[in-house]
Structures are given as structure tokens and as C-alpha cells.
Design a protein that fits this description.
Blueprint (H helix, E strand, L loop, with lengths): L9 E4 L4 H13 L9 E6 L5 E8 L2 E7 L9 H14 L6 E4 L4 H6 L3 E6 L2 E5 L3 H10 L9 E6 L6 H11 L4 E6 L9 H12 L4 E2 L22 H22 L3 E5 L5 H13 L6 E5 L7 H9 L3 H5 L7 H18 L20 H18 L9 H19 L6 H19 L5 H12 L9 H9 L4 H6 L3 H15 L27 H16 L3 H7 L1 H16 L3 H14 L4 H17 L1
């Protein structure tokens, strides 16, 4: 380290290095702190290379600030924090916050920070007008009158019947109720979607405000998102609640905070306990409303992960259903994409027969399609004519093409899964959800858009008399419901369902000396893909290598399915990748099969 008379040299420590990370952890532990998640950690080093002062930066929050006791008289915090402020400013961040110990308050005040929340072991400060600007935005919703006002703060990941029940019961006890969503974007459903779910789900009962960094966020309560109940999390709870009581509640004129009972999450349960301790002395009562049965957002997410729309939908209001369907669409596409050893197709290891696509592009496209489906879906009931359906599909397609730079990653999937999604939402709302109804309504809906098919499949249909994507849809995807779906479900559940008549039974024949054991957790995906490919006139294959070669591909898929082995699948993939054979139609039908399974099981 340079002498006190010289400028202090500050270094950014690479936490990706195990050695340097351990050095930072040991330094913080010696000063009563632990390393939290940070983007950068800045240090002042002594002559022997040991850390004597350090501070981290995560987004717009300075944290993990510590100075070794031996050098605390040297005034190292000021140049260290000034360096971080300059670093953040270069990245366009002008409003910084800092977690620090109460004894450091004077130092940070001298650097332009002011305290916005306090707890016995920590304070939260900022050097800009972020909180002031947020409060100015919410104050306009408060009414300076004798009305009683309350607030509910919720994550709603996603919005459930339990959330609706909580808001209903809270609204009965105050004249004006505010609902504030958690803004932090670390949930399955992003903030903008959760905000819209809350607005559509309970906007008739309460005023739904924008979320912010100033309640249950990575700024005020980072361990909430880690579900980490420690001494640090208790300090953060108190900071979060002090900020609410000191600033947000007065701005809204709120005197009651409503929470739901929490029987299963220890961290949230502890937060509720501390809330009852902290808020009443500051004039804010806490009312705990019993949970609605066993409805939990975590159970909805679990149902989606397991691929069950009907289980998830039973715990959510109809206004949430489009978001559930969109997530299951994305799930189906991700499962197809992540399945390894798909002949000619993109996976995590290869780009298959494609030179313009790779795994990252495909995965990003799925995220775009999922968000686009929600953004462009006007309502559950207005997609009833050709123009509205085509406009909806084209909007999603345009978003995909904008993201990919014009590469068609999922046009066929948008058509197939989009039709099934629209029909599902209509049938589910009508309480007539059967597989037969789903097939018939897909056929009916696709019949409206026959005149707009300009795909490669349309050309193959005209030249070779095969059934393309539109014709399959107009028939209600009969092969899918009769063959592919039962086959997929049967091998996924160890043969508990019938083997479809058009596909031959599978005889697994893996030779240990030449092949690794099958990846049983995903093997049913590859087998279903082969089954689809063996019975489908894949217009993508016809377009690429001609009708005659496409018929040979069908026969090769049947032969491999009849005597299945990983070695055979790997060889087929190598041949098709090299030959340029990409069964994109079969891949779309595999994704649709997975999607339909999640809608109907």
C-alpha cells in the first residue's frame, strides 16, 4: 500500500478466482461480515498483499464494507467509496445505496449519503433522490381524509386464488386498500407479468401500485429471495420494515398492513413476527389473515414444473391462466430443445443440420415467444375470427424474427402451440375441457386461417399431396391424439398406457461395449421424436432434401425405433447433421405433444 500522503491504490478483486474469493471471505469474516453476492469487490491492499479495506457493488447497492482495525485511522473508506461512485457513474448509475454499520454513518454522510432506514446492526443510506421520487409517484394515490387505508405487499409468483382471498378480506376491513407488488425480477414470472396479474386479478378491490426497490427487494431484503433465515436476514427485515414505516406508509396514509399466515416458509413467518414487533409502535397495525386452504404460489409453480395446467389452474383465478399456459408452452419448447442426440436438430452440444442457429439463439427465442404470447394476447375471448388470429400469430412471429435477426427458429411451433393455447383458454373458461373438445376446437379454429398459409409446407402439400402443418391442425391433430400423445405418455410412465397402433413396440438394445447406458430421464423424448418422424410427412425434410429422401427418413426412423440404441441414434444424428436433414416439423410436433400432455393430464 502507498503511504498516507499519496493517493490510495484501489484494486478490483476477481471473485471468480477461488484464491482471491477465499481471501475476501476471510477478510470480511475477521470483520464480522460475510461475502454477499456482488458484481465487483474493490480493495485496498497492504504491502504484503493482504486486504485492509474493501467494499462490494451489486447493481446500485454498495455492500460488504469493511476496514481492518489496524488501519481505521487512515481514512480509507472515503477514497474507496469515491472510487466505487465513479465506477458506477461510468455505468450510468447515479443513485447509489449502501448497507453499512451504524458507526459508519458519519463517514457516508460526508460523502453525500443520507440515511433512509435504520436497524440495531445496520443502516441503509442512499446518495440520490430515488426514494424521494418514488414517494412523489405514490403520494398522488393517497387521499388526505378520514378514510382508513391499508396495504398488502405481495410477490404473486404467480397470482393465485390465495392472493385474491387475502385482498378480498383486507378490503373488507379498510375503506381504501393498496397492493404493492415486489419488483425484484428473480421469480419464475417477471415483474411486468406479475404486476399485470395482480391488476387483472384484484384491481376491482384495491389500487395496485408500481413496485420499487424500497420494499422486499434485493436492496432492502436480499435474503428474502434466498429464503435464508440468519442474523443478517433479521437485520434486513428490520431495515425493510423501518423504511416502510418511516416513508412509504406515511406517503400513502396507511395505518394497517395486511399479511397472510405463513405455515411453511420459516423466513416469511419470521418476517411476520418481526413486523408485529416493529410496526405497531410506529402507528401501523398488523392484521394477519388466515391462508385460503393450502393454496400456495409455490404449489402452482410445482404443478407447472411437473407439466399440469389443470392442477395449476385449480389454484389460480382465470385472469392468471394465460400466464400458466404461456409458461407451459415455453416448458414444452425447452424440453424439446434440451433433449440430446436429436438427428439434424439443434441441442446443447451441436447445431444439427443448421448453420444459422445454435442453442443460445433457440433458447432466447423461446423466452421471446413466451413474453410475446402474453403481451399480444388481447383477451381470452376475442380471438374468434381469421383477422384477429392471424394478427396475433404474426405479432409473435415478428418478435421472434426481430430477436433472431430474421432467422426462423420457431414459426411452426408458434402456429401449432399457439392454436392449442388459444383453444385451451377458451375451453377451460367454458368448463368443457376434454381431449376430444380440444382436438375439435383446434380443427375449427385452424379452419378459419386456411387462406393465409404461405409456408414451405404449403408447397409440399401442393406438389406431393402430403399433409402439412395446416392440414394436420384442420384435422385436429388426429395422429397426435391417437398415436403420439399416448405413446409419449406410455413410455414416460413405463408403459402404463396403451402403445399406439401406428408405432411399433420399442425393444431397447444397448450394447455396453459400444454405448453408454441410455439417458432414461429424457429417452422418451427421443423415442417419441422417432415415432413422430416415422409416421409424419415432415415438410421441413421434404423442402431440404426432397420427397424421396424424406420417405427414406421415415423408414430409417421406424427401423431405429424398432431396434433402439443410443449408438444407432448417435450415428443417425451424425449422418443427418452432415446431410442437412432437419426434421423441424417433427420437432414442432414433439413440442406440441409435450404441451398437449401438460394441458390434458
Amino acid at each position: 500500500m502507498q503511504t498516507e500522503e499519496n493517493i490510495v491504490e484501489i484494486q478490483s478483486i476477481p471473485l471468480s478466482s477461488t484464491r482471491f474469493r477465499r481471501q475476501v471471505e476471510n477478510f470480511l469474516a475477521a470483520n464480522g461480515l460475510r461475502l454477499e453476492v456482488v458484481d465487483n469487490y474493490f480493495c485496498v491492499l497492504d504491502e504484503d498483499g493482504s486486504i485492509v479495506a474493501g467494499a462490494g457493488l451489486k447493481g446500485d447497492v454498495i455492500k460488504c464494507v469493511a476496514v481492518d482495525a489496524s488501519v481505521r485511522s487512515r481514512g480509507l473508506v472515503a477514497p474507496l467509496v469515491s472510487h466505487i461512485i465513479a465506477h458506477a457513474s461510468a455505468d450510468g448509475i447515479t443513485n447509489l445505496k449502501v448497507f453499512t454499520k451504524p458507526e459508519n454513518e458519519a463517514i457516508f454522510t460526508s460523502l453525500g449519503f443520507h440515511t433512509i432506514a435504520s436497524a440495531p446492526l445496520s443502516i441503509l443510506m442512499e446518495n440520490g433522490h430515488g426514494l424521494e421520487d418514488y414517494l412523489a409517484g405514490v403520494t398522488c394515490h393517497s387521499e388526505r381524509s378520514e378514510e382508513s387505508s391499508g396495504v398488502v405487499i405481495m410477490n404473486a409468483n404467480p397470482f393465485t386464488l390465495g392472493h385474491r382471498y387475502l385482498v378480498e378480506k383486507a378490503s373488507e376491513q379498510v375503506e381504501k386498500l393498496f397492493v404493492i407488488p415486489v419488483r425484484e425480477d428473480v421469480s419464475l414470472f417477471p415483474y411486468e407479468e406479475r404486476l399485470e396479474m395482480i391488476r387483472s386479478g384484484c384491481g376491482d378491490l384495491a389500487t395496485v401500485l408500481e413496485g420499487s426497490d424500497y420494499q422486499i427487494s434485493a436492496t432492502t431484503f436480499p435474503t428474502y429471495f434466498l429464503k435464508d433465515l440468519t442474523e443478517a436476514s433479521e437485520t434486513q427485515m428490520r431495515l425493510d420494515l423501518d423504511l416502510f414505516a418511516r416513508h412509504i406508509a406515511p406517503a400513502l396514509g396507511v395505518t394497517v398492513r395486511f399479511v397472510g399466515t405463513e405455515p411453511s416458509d420459516p423466513l416469511t413467518a419470521r418476517y411476520n413476527v418481526i413486523m408485529k414487533e416493529v410496526l405497531p409502535p410506529q402507528g401501523i397495525s398488523v392484521i394477519e389473515i388466515p391462508r385460503l386452504g393450502n393454496v400456495r404460489a409455490s404449489d402452482v409453480r410445482k404443478s407447472l414444473e411437473q407439466g399440469s395446467f389443470q392442477n395449476a389452474a385449480a389454484m389460480a383465478p382465470q385472469t392468471t391462466w394465460p400466464y400458466l399456459v404461456a409458461e407451459l408452452m415455453a416448458r414444452a419448447l425447452r424440453m424439446e430443445l434440451d433433449a440430446p442426440l436429436k438427428p439434424g436438430l439443434v441441442d446443447q452440444e451441436t447445431s444439427g443440420a443448421h448453420s444459422d442457429m445454435d442453442y443460445a439463439l433457440m433458447k432466447g427465442s423461446i423466452d421471446v415467444i413466451r413474453r410475446s404470447f402474453i403481451r399480444h394476447l388481447p383477451s381470452l375471448f376475442c380471438l374468434t375470427d381469421k383477422d384477429s388470429i392471424v394478427k396475433f400469430g404474426k405479432a409473435i412471429e415478428a418478435d421472434m424474427l426481430e430477436y433472431t435477426g430474421g432467422v426462423n427458429t420457431y414459426r411452426g411451433a408458434i402456429f401449432a402451440l399457439g392454436l392449442a393455447a388459444i383453444v385451451t383458454l377458451k375451453i377451460a373458461c367454458d368448463s368443457r375441457f376434454t381431449v376430444t373438445e380440444l382436438s375439435e376446437r383446434v380443427a375449427e379454429l385452424s379452419g378459419l386461417i386456411a387462406a393465409v398459409d404461405d409456408s414451405h409446407g404449403a408447397k409440399a402439400v401442393k406438389e406431393h399431396g402430403v399433409k402439412g402443418a395446416l392440414q394436420l391442425a384442420q384435422e385436429g391433430y388426429k395422429p397426435l391424439f391417437a398415436d403420439w400423445l399416448p405413446y409419449y405418455q406410455g413410455i414416460a410412465t413405463a408403459g402404463s398406457l396403451r402403445t399406439p397402433y401406428a408405432l411399433r413396440p420399442i425393444r431397447v438394445n444397448v450394447r455396453p461395449e459400444t454405448s453408454r447406458p441410455p439417458q432414461t430421464e429424457s429417452w422418451h423424448l427421443q423415442k417419441t421424436l422417432l415415432g413422430i418422424l416415422s409416421t409424419l410427412d415432415d415438410t421441413c425434410v421434404i423442402h431440404r432434401v426432397g420427397y424421396q429422401r424424406a420417405q427414406e427418413v421415415k423408414e430409417e426412423a421406424k427401423a431405429l425405433l424398432d431396434d433402439f440404441s443410443e449408438e444407432g441414434l448417435r450415428k443417425m444424428k451424425m449422418r443427418y447433421d452432415a446431410e442437412g436433414i432437419s426434421p423441424g416439423g417433427a420437432a414442432d410436433m414433439l413440442a406440441l405433444t409435450i404441451f398437449i400432455d401438460s394441458l390434458t393430464q
